[in-house]
Protein 1
Amino acid sequence: MRDPARARELERLGCEIRRGDVTDEASLRGAGEQIDVAYFLVHAMAGGAGYAERERSGAENFARMAKREGVARVVYLGGLGDERVSSHLRSRHETAMTLAANGPPLTYFRAAMVVGARSESYRTIRHLVKRLPVMIAPSWLRKATQPIGIDDVVEYLRRAPEVPESAGREVQIGGPDVLSYADMLDRMALAMGVRPRPKLPVPFITPWLSALWLGLITPVDTNVARPLVEGLTTETVVTDPSGAAAFGISPAPFDQTLRRALAEEHQMQAGADE
């Protein structure tokens, strides 16, 4: 995690905290000692231009450390979708390939939108519904996606060491609902107790203009918004459920994950106001 202060609760639970920088290989020395499974959950989009190279470099350093120090398995979470049409998804996939090529056997989870109170994709949708009485509707709003709740993603990650057949393979995960982004906006409105917003079709708006628009309307960092929008231009659905089947997890429906995220967000806000 970027802020060591957020690790204090883990220390109270008996966890040993070590600080390192995946882009500085020397700082990782010793991090994999006596570790069976290591999780690589590092993304670098918020750093702006050059994030793909930083992600690859960090993955290579981490993988080499894990292999050198005897880690048995690495677990990584990337994205669903055709990486050929999105630099964001391409970087996620290349990170996975770098981990697999340089480190221990990899469990490569791939997910679409993760629904949680701190998810940038979730926050984007919520703010669009909250702030706009009418929305422009670029063509990517019609693309199919398969969102999954954060609790279910964490459970997949947690169970990875218990599922030996997941080592060295891709595991596509998603919730039970396949929706368009327009459908998700409407479902968000209903979960928030407001009327679904009318949408004005603008089929020729580019991903760059969509990202600029999102940056103006929502609090999402523009360094994150543009790669996210590029990823929305391809369908992000599970095409091979076989890897996930071994985990025995039944992910929650989209509407339920929305209610959980909204409730958590209200709790966070109440705690901040005290």
Protein 2
Amino acid sequence: MAITDYKDLWVFIEAKNGKIKPVSLELLTPGRKLADAMGQSLCAVVIADNCAEICQSVEKYGVDKIYTVENQVYADYNTEPYTNALCRLVEKYKPAAVLIGATNNGRDMGPRLACRLKTGLTADCTGLDIDGETRHVAWTRPAFGGNLMATIMCPDTRPQIGTVRPGVFKKAAAGREKAPEIIRFAEPIDTTARTKKILDVKEAGQELINIEEAEIIVSGGRGLGKAENFSYVRELADVLGGAVGASRAAVDAGWIPHVHQVGQTGKTVGPKLYIACGISGAIQHLAGISGADRVIAINKDPQAPIFSYADYGVVGNLFEIIPALIAEYKKAKQANQ
């Protein structure tokens, strides 16, 4: 088939227990922009054991079509059944591009889908656009350890596929303009083939909270000096009801697990409030907090690059400033009770 035979832009909607992953709704924002630039439709893809509730949530975000595949086997994510279903959809309806959230599941499924379809995949994207000359999707992602940004295009095969980091784009306000077309895929799909069996599903503890979904993040960097001093960051995060983040330097030093890392080689976040404690502000870290509404920096070096980026800055000893912030917050909280 010719490349011009492929139409529309798809966003894979990832959900768990009927709750949509935030990155899926975030992707509808650039998805709308790209689809309009292509002069084509924005479509959502829902694979679940019960699609109705998920579709009701998705249709509020202005999608033109929703493709659904429904079966009890899709109650929990499993590599082979999900890949089989999405592959069958793509083969039948032939989208021009597919956006997938760079979650654990998305990173698992995306490459398998691309391999089966014999097309390319750009992983872990932090930027999306339409190339003005070729009209291909321009996928931007960190390269060479986050030291530069590469823009990649897929000119020879379709669909164009990419996984996109959570927190890069802001979720648009819900406000459906018209009811989308619902396309239910009812053709037989192999749901028996699988390379793994789910024995049990347990929620991770508070320490492994998903910082990509947190509204408040308190992060620590090299300025903490040692692993034990992350107790200051954790206490401030606890009293604010937030999550704990970290710079690459703190992670590389072994002070905190990589799951907390913020930056080009970690997580891209978009909280309402981001507090950087002892973080100098390397460009790779700043790229990871570009979606934050407000940034507060605490650093003893008045020349630290983070101050040029932050909305508010506090120059001083973080081991004195953080306890003072905690005490003031607790005092204000008690006064309002």
Protein 3
Amino acid sequence: MNSSQADTGLRQGRFTTIENGTVFRILDFHPGVQQRVHRTDSIDYIVVMSGEIDMELEIGVEVHLKAGDVMVQRGTVHNWINRGKVSCVMAVILIHANSVQVGDQKLGPFG
């Protein structure tokens, strides 16, 4: 909301999406970063600015990304793994979306 005077950077859960909004952040994944398997309720646009990283999906498939690569992530369960020797810096834009729905089951965000 443009007319608000609140500093939304101070809100709780600043690493989650904002309902009907967007979040932009720069992430720095150091080598050997701790595992964090998660799913978001967003469509994520990811641009690798430097370094390399693997995105591991819950089905065991891995996608290797390097500087200049772009990925669109749509509500899958995933984990970021930096097996390299330098940090991987990514620009990430999260756009709020409805949670994944399979039949009558809603697969909401976690992690």
